[in-house]
Amino acid sequence: MSGTGGRSGRGAPRGPGAPRGRGAPGKGAARDADLQDAPDRLVSAEARDEDGEGSIRPLALEEFIGQAQARANLDVFIRAARARNDALDHVLFVGPPGLGKTTLAQIVARELGVNFRSTSGPVIARAGDLAAQLTNLEERDVLFIDEIHRLNPAVEEILYPAMEDYQLDLIIGEGPSARSVKIDLPKFTLVGATTRQGLLTTPLRDRFGIPIRLQFYTVAELELIVKRGARVIGVGMSDDGANEIARRARGTPRIAGRLLRRVRDFAVVGGADQVTREIADRALSLLDVDSIGLDLMDRKYLRMIALSFGGGPVGVETIAAALSEPRDAIEEIIEPYLIQQGFVQRTPRGRLLTPHAFRHLGLAEPAPGAAQYALFRDQSEEEA
User: Fold this and answer.
1) Which residues form the AAA+ ATPase domain (predicted)?
2) What kind of fold does domain 296-383 have according to CATH?
3) Which of 22, 71, 101, 150 is catalytic?
4) CA Rg, the chain, in Å?
5) Which residues make up each annotated binding site for ATP?
6) Domain spans of the chain?
């Protein structure tokens, strides 16, 4: 079984003048630069080279922990495809980073007994890059495209007939001598992964016959993942130690694995033969990860709104200036988990801390008659 992730060396005709980026390059490039400049965080769900996830990834559906409905549905679709001796329909995994989209894509290929080829939306700059990938596929192979929402529009146009009719439509030459060439492709399965389904175009989204949304994991599921990871990397793990790590993993296996490795380091240096709750608590506290997974940046954000702006509402531009962070980093890296946990509410007038945030910070709540809490109550009543 192939596990190639780079571009194929086999040549393919390139469409002339294909643009290299999606949409207006200025705005997108600036946003990407802002996100790259955001501080590295232990509790970030984005993949890192040093995570070493490959060593602890499950290899089969029955080994995969969590996502019960997604696993059950995939099992049916995979078994049906094998029984028909046919390619699996195209699959789209949707969900926040770190929940197992890449792992499930690899498992799909392994369960089907076919080759797995991997790339990502930003890497496929031109139509010829995608053509090279597609023409190297064998019958029923799986092609995985991560961050598929970042595909170049010109490349996306090539995908439509490839997904629907298993054909490549390419333009050879330029001007009056240009001609259209159709290349037949083997029946293959495209597996796409995206963290931002809303950025997918409707024609592309509608061509995926199997859309699967992944959910955040429960603490109980993360405990099992931590225990399995501990066995794989060869460290003893008590039940309460696994629970302590799981509670701080923000519902995300990738973060759980990263915290496990860092706690393992503290246990090894301390001469402990297994990770206990006390060791995990001490290690994660020293790493500035609190009891529910908030890190220093999260608490800095919350305390700044609480102490400098009376709990809000305060605009995101003001927050970005106060924290010396780009707006995109605030909205896409810091705020999602805080909003999910009920610490922050977005209102028309800006960000507003909830009473839950003040309790977690150990700060007194503003007086009940304060203007911002009148706004909070009004909105809560409207939602009710």
Assistant:
1) 87-218
2) Arc Repressor Mutant, subunit A (1.10.10)
3) 101
4) 24
5) 56-57, 98, 101-103, 164-166, 207, 217, 254
6) 32-213, 219-286, 296-383
Adjacent-strand bridge partners of 225:
none
- Would residue 146 show up in a list of annotated catalytic residues for this protein? yes
Binding site: which residues?
56-57, 98, 101-103, 164-166, 207, 217, 254, 327, 346, 351
**Domain spanning 32-213: CATH superfamily:** P-loop containing nucleotide triphosphate hydrolases (3.40.50.300)
State yes or no: is 101 an active-site residue.
yes
Give the burial string for 232-268 (b: 16+ CB within 10 Å, else e): eeebebbeebbbbbbbbbbbbbbbbbbbbbbbbebbe
Tens-digit pLDDT string for the chain (384 aa): 444 443 333 333 333 333 333 444 444 444 554 444 545 666 665 665 555 555 678 889 999 999 999 999 999 999 999 999 999 999 999 998 899 999 999 999 999 999 999 999 999 888 888 888 899 999 999 999 999 999 988 888 889 999 999 988 877 767 677 777 788 899 999 999 998 888 899 999 999 999 999 999 999 999 999 999 999 888 999 999 999 999 999 999 999 999 999 999 999 998 888 999 999 999 999 999 998 889 899 999 999 999 888 888 999 899 999 988 888 888 888 888 899 889 999 898 999 999 999 999 888 887 755 545 544 444 444 444
Whole-angstrom Cα distance, residue 33 to residue 38?
9
Instruction: Give me the catalytic one of 129, 141, 146, 328.
Output: 146
Residue 227 designated active-site: no
Topology (CATH level 3) of domain 219-286: Helicase, Ruva Protein; domain 3 (1.10.8)
Residues 361/225/96/355 CA torsion (nearest 10 deg): -20
Which position among 34, 102, 227, 354 bears the catalytic label?
102
Q: What angle do CA 16, 18, 22 make, to 5 degrees?
A: 175
195 assigned to active site: yes
Contact 205, 214 (CB under 8 A): no
250 part of the active site: no
Name the catalytic one among 195, 252, 276, 354: 195
